[in-house]
Amino acid sequence: MKKIILLFGDLATGKSTLSNILANRYHCLLINKDNIKEILADCIGFESRQENLKLSHATYELIKFMLLKIAPFGYDLILESNFHKDELNELYMLLDNLEYEYLSIVLTGDIDILYPRFVNRAFHQNRHPAHLSAKLDIYENFKDYILKNRNWDLKGKIMHLNANDFSYQCEKTFSEIDEFFK
């Protein structure tokens, strides 16, 4: 059976880093939301938060489109994003119809740890402007965003990883994922 990892969770938890590690380890195709959104933003541009949200929606639609085009070939995949509840529910239904076995890897952490990491990444590591339009540099906005978006309805096999530090990137985690790919 085809396998897919849905890797998602809080901002600044290391989702992209982990998805790249897993794609290399398991020789999977990786579809990463941030990369697609950055390309769209560079090509199309945006001037407001509303336009940026449209880019996010278009990015999600492209992820679904790519999934539908790739699925008939039977490739194992990793989809990485900060999926919202409705997107995730739609993906679960789609994956059931496409006869994929899926593993949801959810990265979360303490907001007081994630916030400084987010701010450092956003403003000291030249984060792409497509990821900076939500005014999440204000602690209360960041906290509200994280708490609002943790309302996932999870299905199937689930792995919760605490991302307060990056110790989840270890052999114990990888051996559990190895089992999924067997």
Description:
The structure is a single chain. With 182 residues, the protein is of the alpha/beta class. Helices cover 52% and strands 17% of the residues. The chain contains 7 helices and 5 strands. The model has no long low-confidence stretch (mean pLDDT 93).
How many alpha or pi helices? 7
User: How would you sum up the global shape?
Assistant: globular
| Beta fraction | 15-25%
Largest sheet: number of strands, sense, barrel closure: 5 strands, parallel
Instruction: Please identify the structural class as seen in this structure.
Output: alpha/beta
> How are the strands of the largest sheet arranged?
2-3-1-4-5
Question: What is shown here, in short?
Answer:
With 182 residues, the chain is an alpha/beta fold. The chain has seven helices and five strands, in the order βαβααβαβααβα.
